[in-house]
Specification:
Elements: E1 4-8, E2 14-24, E3 31-39, H1 42-57, H2 69-81, H3 86-104, H4 114-127, H5 132-148, H6 181-194, H7 197-209, H8 213-217, E4 224-225, E5 230-233, E6 236-239, E7 245-248, E8 257-260, H9 263-279, H10 304-320, H11 329-342, H12 347-354, H13 359-366, H14 371-385
Antiparallel strand pairs: 1-2, 2-3, 4-5, 5-8, 6-7
Helix pairs in contact: 2-3, 2-5, 4-5, 6-7, 7-9, 7-11, 12-13
Length: about 400
């Protein structure tokens, strides 16, 4: 038990101090203690001792000699790991590894300046204009922990000026991340004629149901009710530490949903079910069989559908001499929302079908109109104003 001792300073005044064993140094492997002094009252020393004891007990103590950003990050990570899902933890590791640690890991936290932070934020914005604020958020989490450990007394990132969104055409690229009706049919018809049925039905299902990629990759045949004509979304595929696959409930309560399917989509699914049984040499119906497995009949890597898209685009160019419009996997969800809008589906119904917990999210997606709809809007305005 550490003892608080009085000592006399050169000017004759009495202050208080204590020595405290803080465990084994993780870098040297040697036992270590720390000395704290300069307390004017015994009560101040007692409070400091209690705070230090708590840091050591919760493995949050960091020797003042070792205080680089990476040191603090390592301690913060232990705390963070216990409060988030494994898939979230794995994603955070990736963000730090690829975007934050390369710029900060070897710098002592008290030497990180606002000027340097501004330089890095500008770089983040230039490379990832949609995600740079997320990098700032995680950087701040570590620096706030450094503040908690009394290694710094202010976070230099607080004084950084965030880059402003300049108005240019690149800003609006995201609004073109969907297919119009004609573009979708062109894509699906080409895929159906030139590629295996699994690829075709995967993209068809995304476009005609609006499900997320992780939801699609976790689907098993017992999620498809052919009699009542719906698809049940009750899980999603994510990746955890070391790339291992994880099945989780959907991201929000609203994501648990039944999505009713059209007859053509159900027929395509039934055809794929029979083809899959032949392909995998299955002699019985397995309700737990994945709809979209890999060649080993296990979970499909989430990046594979993106590679499918790129392959389809190359073949389309080779066969037709034309460029195929490329959208992201999430763009098929935007496509579905756009088609719902053009079909006259109201906002509330679209929200439930897409599994949005907030109607504002649906409203933002719902405004992604196709070129045809924009042209119709102009035509209606022209007709109304008698401009012909």
């Amino acid at each position: 038990m550490a003892q608080i001792k009085p000592y006399k300073k050169q000017d004759g005044t009495i202050n208080y101090m204590f020595d405290y064993y803080v465990g084994v140094n993780p870098k040297t492997g040697k036992k270590q203690k720390t000395t704290r002094r300069g307390f004017e009252t015994k009560e101040e020393a007692s409070l400091a001792l209690a705070e230090l004891s708590l840091l050591v007990a919760t493995e949050q103590y960091l020797p003042r000699k070792y205080k680089t950003f990476n040191d603090v990050y390592t301690l913060w990570l232990k705390k963070y790991r216990g409060i988030v899902k494994e898939s979230t933890y794995a994603g955070t590791l990736s963000i730090f590894k690829n975007n934050i640690l390369p710029y900060f890991q070897e710098i002592e936290v008290q030497n990180i300046t606002t000027v340097y932070c501004q330089e890095i934020v500008n770089k983040w914005y230039k490379i990832h204009p949609k995600r740079f604020k997320r990098y700032i958020y995680y950087f701040n989490a570590v620096m706030n922990h450094a503040n908690y450990l009394e290694l710094i007394f202010k976070n230099p990132m607080e004084f950084v000026q965030l880059p402003q969104n300049n108005i240019d055409l690149n800003q609006y690229k995201e609004f073109d991340n969907f297919y119009s009706k004609d573009e979708l049919l062109e894509f699906l018809n080409f895929t159906k004629k030139n590629f295996e049925h699994q690829r075709f039905i995967f993209f068809h299902l995304l476009a005609f149901s609006g499900i997320r990629r992780g939801e699609a990759l976790s689907l098993t045949w017992n999620d498809i009710n052919f009699e009542e004509k719906y698809l049940l979304v009750s899980k999603t595929l994510t990746k955890g530490e070391n790339g291992r696959f994880l099945i989780h409930p959907p991201k929000t309560k609203a994501s648990f949903r039944k999505i009713f399917l059209d007859n053509q989509t159900l027929n395509y699914l039934q055809t794929w079910k029979e083809l899959q049984k032949e392909k995998l040499n299955l002699t019985y119906d397995n309700p737990k069989q994945l709809l979209f497995p890999n060649h080993k009949n296990s979970f499909l890597e989430p990046n594979i559908p993106k590679e499918w898209l790129q392959t389809i685009a190359r073949h389309y160019k080779k066969k037709t001499g034309k460029d195929l419009k490329i959208i992201t996997i999430h763009g098929f969800r935007h496509t579905h929302a756009s088609l719902l809008y053009l079909s006259g589906i109201n906002l509330k119904e679209a929200q439930e079908r897409l599994g949005h917990s907030n109607v504002k999210t649906t409203l933002n997606v719902y405004t992604h109109l196709s070129d045809k709809q924009r042209e119709q809007t102009v035509d209606k305005l022209t007709e109304f104003m008698n401009l012909d």
